[in-house]
Amino acid sequence: MPLPAYITVAFAAYFLGSIPTGYLVGKARGVDIRTVGSKNMGATNVFRTLGKRLGIFVLIVDGLKGFAATAWLCDLVLQKFTVPSDQLLSVHLIGGICAVLGHNYTCWLWFKGGKGIATTAGVYFALAPLSVSIAIGVWIVMLAATRYVSVASIAAAVVLPVAVWLTKDSVLLGVVTTVLCSLAIYKHKANIQRLIAGTENRMDFKKEKTTA
User: Fold this and answer.
1) Are 165 and 202 in contact (CB under 8 A)?
2) Where do the DSSP E strands lie in 49-176?
3) Closest CA to 141 of 151, 132, 130, 127
4) Of the candidates 115, 72, 91, 69, which has an alpha carbon nearest to the alpha carbon of residue 5?
5) Going by C-beta distance under 8 Å and a sequence separation of 6 or more, which residues neighbour residue 49?
6) Does the pTM of the predicted model rise above 0.90?
7) pLDDT along the chain (212 residues), means of 10
């Protein structure tokens, strides 16, 4: 087993994923994003509290972290280490997993991070673009129908592993996808509680900025 390649990818992908984009954007505006709105560092809270453009920026950057860790970073490492062809997918999966873990449990903020939806989407644009495109389609439809980002994200997290199992001939990829999406749903536990209580905030696309 090319252990150095795995270790290099794991550490580099974790630190790439751990960049707290939402927190840094908030700090640049003089706001600690962890203390306003839903207190989450993800794009949705940035969208609500700092405005659409910054929310979209955080969404794109968080997605790029996952894609870059899974595709570009792994490709760079594979140029330096010899890895058997039957283990290439494993290397890319390690990159994707560690990027999501870095985002969700960033070492820069006492291992408290986001929910990993955008970063996971970025990972799967590298690994299974058709499957993640289906999941994003579901996300858009559910957001338009309910205006709950949490409902749309949970629905996408349910659909993605199903799409991977149906469109990819890889048990390993299917298992990893199921685990990552289960983690994404788990990270929404507070949203699920608010949905049940009827206190979850809906997305207001008309407002440029709100502190609710």
Assistant:
1) no
2) none
3) 151
4) 91
5) 26, 31, 33, 36, 37, 209, 210, 211
6) yes
7) 89 98 97 93 94 96 98 94 92 97 97 96 98 98 96 98 97 98 96 95 68 36
